[in-house]
Write a structure and sequence with these properties.
- The protein has eight helices and six strands; from the N terminus they run E-E-E-H-E-E-H-H-E-H-H-H-H-H.
- It folds into three domains: 90 residues, Ribosomal Protein S5, domain 2 (2-Layer Sandwich); 43 residues, no CATH class; 138 residues, no CATH class.
- It is of the alpha+beta class.
- Helices cover 60% and strands 14% of the residues.
- The strands form two sheets. The protein has a four-stranded mixed β-sheet.
- Helix 1 packs across helix 4, helix 4 packs antiparallel against helix 8 and helix 7 runs antiparallel to helix 8.
Length: 292
């Protein structure tokens, strides 16, 4: 079972007093990363929300948005600082006396600093906790459905591309012995042309040269390791645990082997198949970046 790292889930929970809305968004990330946009009064719930989400999600960058409405709980309160207002009035009265009866404007008083105090909304009752967790669980469930659906599509694409890589690797393996035969024949012709009218070719020396070339261009070990990586890839796809990072590592190793095959193959047919394999591996790598 594969899960994508991208998804979205939203949910509502309400009672007679409060209405809670939760949104959870998830995108690619190498590790588990969780951020919150939550009312100040509910910050204490972050730990519980994280525990709920982490029980289902192992990797990805997630953003949780919590909105609460009801009972005017989110509205800030404005209070009058009467102590300082009284001081301003005393000062204004004194100014009025000293200025010979000039009056002061109430509007000016309201604009003076510290006349009003803006206070955050009161703490919410703990009864709202269950609403928040309920909504988080529902939003998470919808997020996981989306991640699973996309994961199934990625799985099918990966299986198809793996089959393509396996076919190309088989072609390379089947053609590899022909490279030595072609090199031996070409070397014989070149030497014969060079020694035309001269003594016969030293067969043993010629065979030694061919053996040296065959050893340098031998790709059996690389093909064996590449096939092993492909087999491990299939095995990991069938496991239930998150495997994105392991698959990414296998992709790197597959790239390493096919690059070595390309450098040692020394043949046009092998080179064409190597290019095709590298193209498929790159597409595998792009898909794996989105796997949990």
């Amino acid at each position: 079972m594969l899960y994508s790292m991208t998804g979205f889930g939203t949910a509502l929970a309400a009672n007679g007093q409060y209405r809670v809305e939760i949104e959870i968004k998830s995108v690619n990330h190498r590790f588990f990363d969780l951020s919150f946009n939550i009312p100040r009064q509910l910050i204490y719930l972050e730990g519980r929300i994280k525990k709920v989400i982490k029980s289902s999600v192992k990797r990805g960058a997630l953003s949780v948005y919590v909105t609460v409405d009801g009972e005017e709980m989110t509205a800030p309160k404005i209070e009058t600082n009467w102590a300082i207002v009284n001081e301003y009035i005393k000062a204004a009265d004194e100014i009025q006396k000293r200025s010979g009866g000039k009056t002061w404007d109430m509007h000016d008083l309201l604009l003076l600093p510290d006349v009003f105090i803006v206070k955050e909304a009161d703490e919410l009752p703990t009864a709202i906790d269950s609403l928040v967790i309920e909504a988080v669980e529902e939003a998470l469930s919808r997020l996981m459905i989306m991640r699973k659906t996309e994961g199934e599509q990625i799985y099918q694409d990966l299986i198809g591309r793996l089959a393509s890589v396996e076919r190309l690797v088989q072609k390379i393996a089947e053609h590899a012995p022909e490279v030595r035969k072609f090199y031996e024949e070409r070397l014989r012709n070149h030497v014969a042309e060079f020694l035309r009218g001269q003594p016969a070719i030293d067969e043993q020396r010629l065979l030694n040269e061919v053996a040296i070339f065959a050893d340098k261009s031998n790709i059996d070990e690389e093909l064996t390791r590449l096939r092993s990586h492909l087999k491990q890839f299939h095995t990991l796809l069938g496991e239930p645990e998150p495997k994105g990072r392991q698959l990414d590592f296998l992709i790197q190793e597959m790239n390493r082997e096919i690059n070595t095959i390309g450098s040692k193959g020394n043949d046009g047919e092998i080179s064409r198949n190597v290019v095709a394999v590298k193209s498929e591996i790159e597409k595998l790598r792009e898909q794996i970046q989105n796997v949990e």
